[in-house]
UniProtKB/TrEMBL annotation, chain A:
Keywords: Membrane, Mitochondrion, Mitochondrion outer membrane, Protein transport, Receptor, Translocation, Transmembrane, Transmembrane helix, Transport. One of its GO terms (biological process) is intracellular protein transport. The gene is LOC108820925. It is found in: Mitochondrion outer membrane. It is a single-pass membrane protein. CDD domains: TOM22. Belongs to the Tom22 family. InterPro entries: Tom22, Tom22_pln. This is Mitochondrial import receptor subunit TOM9-1-like. Its main location: mitochondrion. The keyword Transport applies. It holds the Pfam family Tom22. The chain crosses the membrane at residues 53-70. GO terms for cellular component: mitochondrial outer membrane.
Automatic annotation (TrEMBL), chain B:
Keywords: Acetylation, Ion transport, Membrane, Mitochondrion, Mitochondrion outer membrane, Porin, Protein transport, Transmembrane, Transmembrane beta strand, Transport. It comes from Raphanus sativus (Radish). It is found in: Mitochondrion outer membrane. It holds the Pfam family Porin_3. This is Mitochondrial import receptor subunit TOM40-1-like.
């Protein structure tokens, strides 16, 4: 009986302590879960705003800078071709059309 | 009430020599016309971006006379009630034009398929007096108007008188103060909305840069600055503030003039980025591409065109 009581008491005491442990665990788990939710929320917002900014910067770059680079490169190639032609053909005669 | 600027003592420095030379205040260069005060900034920053197709064909019949045909197809914006949505209506029209160019007389007429007739005349009455007239006739009632300008060019000043058909009178005056600085003012009186206004403008230009500022009693304050970085490149910036309606816009733009093409781009503080590319495909054939992105209103406009002749 005594042993039963003791074991019974030990068991209930053990159950009490495990229940307490469970409660403690629960609070920390809750906090952890909240922190994880916040982190996910903030990172989603950050990703979205970075995406928006990247879109705006990317399309504006496409409109403003890309045609300029293409035209500048064509102008440079035209200059090189003219230089080559000038070196091959030599100086133009005095009455030539430039 | 028209307190125009009195003619100040004028000064001139010969551009080439250094400041050692005494400034000759009686021989100033003639200033730029008042309405073209900010023409360098307009070339870079107010390029005509269009939406849709644009085709212009001009043919010279004579040394002085030429005809032009142009087709424009694309959506045009209609002002809507709410500021968020823009209503676009697709339109297409053809415009026939005739031009006569003479050293002393210039006549331009345009007729559109929607019934509008537009005419411009510029005649040199004497060496110093120029008459410009501009008229528009239209099918819709109360949309026809005409305007006459008399420009007098003095040795270092310009004066202009403007008369419009619905009781509009305006006068502008601009004077060179130093070889680089010119100051001017304007006055106007409109009969139909009984309003009058006065404005002042200043322009300072050197070889490499042009800065202008304008203030008007209609509420606008505009300043712009253009810097010519090389023969091919110039950058411009512009700031406009309306103190009555509290609108403010600042923009920065570039203008690259290359041998075969010309690229102009601009970005705005309203979140608008726009660009215009004109390329010379062959003699007399120009290809145009225009793009405008309005990031705030999410309105994107693209156009392409061809100009022949």
């Amino acid at each position: 009986m005594a042993t039963n009581k003791r074991t019974g008491a030990g068991k209930s005491g053990g159950r009490d302590s495990s229940i307490l442990a469970k409660i403690a665990n629960h609070e920390i788990a809750n906090k952890g879960r909240r922190a994880a939710c916040d982190a996910v929320y903030v990172s989603k917002k950050l990703l979205r705003s970075t995406g928006k900014a990247a879109w705006i910067v990317g399309t504006s770059f496409l409109i403003l800078v890309v045609p300029l680079l293409i035209q500048a490169e064509r102008d440079q190639m035209l200059g090189e071709i003219e230089l080559q032609q000038a070196s091959i053909l030599g100086p133009p005669p005095p009455g030539a059309l430039q | 009430m028209a307190d125009l600027l009195p003619p100040l003592g004028t000064a001139q420095i010969d551009g080439k020599t250094k400041v050692d030379e005494k400034v000759d205040y009686s021989n100033l260069p003639c200033p730029v016309p008042y309405e073209e005060l900010h023409r360098e900034a307009i070339m870079s920053l107010k390029a005509d971006n269009f939406e849709g197709l644009r085709f212009d064909f001009s043919k010279g019949l004579n040394q002085k006379f030429s005809l032009s045909h142009s087709v424009m197809m694309g959506p045009t914006e209609v002002p809507s009630q709410s500021p968020d949505t823009t209503i676009k209506i697709p339109t297409a029209h053809y415009e026939f034009g005739a031009n006569y160019f003479d050293p002393k007389l210039m006549l331009i007429g345009r007729l559109m398929t929607d019934g509008r007739l537009n005419a411009r005349v510029k005649a040199d009455l004497t060496d110093r007096l120029v008459l410009k007239a501009n008229g528009q006739l239209s099918n819709e009632p109360h949309m026809s108007h005409a305007m006459f300008n008399f420009d007098y060019m003095g040795s270092d000043y310009r004066a202009q008188l403007q008369l419009g058909n619905s009781a509009l009178i305006g006068a502008t005056y601009i004077q060179s103060v130093t070889p680089r600085l010119s100051l001017g003012g304007e006055v106007f009186w409109a009969g139909v909305p009984r309003k009058s206004g006065i404005g002042y403008a200043a322009r300072y230009d050197t070889d490499k840069m042009v800065a202008t500022a304008q203030v008007a009693s209609t509420g606008t304050i505009a300043m712009n600055y253009v810097q010519k970085i090389s023969e091919k490149v110039s950058l411009a910036t512009d700031f406009a503030y309306n103190y009555l309606s509290r609108d403010v816009v600042a923009s920065v733009g570039y203008d690259y003039i290359l041998r075969q093409s010309r690229v102009r781009g601009k970005i705005d503080s309203n979140g608008v980025a726009s660009a215009l590319l004109e390329e010379r495909l062959s003699m007399g054939l120009n290809f145009l591409l225009s793009a405008e992105l309005d990031h705030k209103k999410k309105d994107y406009k693209f156009g392409f065109g061809l100009t022949v002749g």
